[in-house]
Amino acid sequence: MSWLRACFRNRGPRTKTEAMKMQSSAQEHEIIELQEHKVEESETDHDKTLDAQTRKERDSWKSCRNVVFWKCKLWMVITTIFLVIFLVILISLILYSNVYTDEDDYWDPDELLSSGNFHNFSGTLELMCVLPHFSSEDITKRLTEVYSSSPALGRYFRSAQVISFSNESSSVIYQLVFSVPPSTEGFMENTMNPDFIRNILRQNIYDEDSLNPGASECDRLKFEPTSLTCKCCTL
Hints:
The protein has helices at residues 2-64, 74-99, 103-106, 109-115, 136-148, 187-190, 194-211, and strands spanning 67-69, 72-73, 118-126, 157-164, 171-179, 231-234. By secondary structure, it is of the alpha+beta class. Helix content is 57%, strand content 15%.
């Protein structure tokens, strides 16, 4: 009898331990099932979102395949509009390049020289400082450099000449000769305008002053920009 009692006493704690283990394993199993269920729900939501996006894309493509009129679908109409715009721009550029001709590119300098269609422009200017070593040749050289290097008038310029100058006076009378093309609308009024020709020289004077701001007026040949005059006289 004492042996049986001892045996039952020894089995009591083991039974409790096994019950606790079984309970904890059951709880762990429930937790795993809950986690798996949440994962399945999230995957289901993600699939629903993808399906909704896919349906929207399909609907947009379906709208492009809708027939607008007759057998023309929407995508055909849109493509045709862009193609027509591109062709209009391309044709306009081609026509403009063929029709438009720059006068400066059209007239050949040798042809202008041989045509004998010359125009004479005369004017006056004042020297900032008169010194004995300044001569009419220096003034002619300066005028020739200015107008022969001008992008607008260089190809038309032929010669410069000092008509009147003395070391006792600062006044200079000069003459410019240009060969011009046959009469073209607006050419003499714009390119060969006396005011435009005078302003070419005036701008050169201002540019030279900006390049040499500290130079003395008597260190170099310098013209008074406000004294420039110019008028046209056809030869």
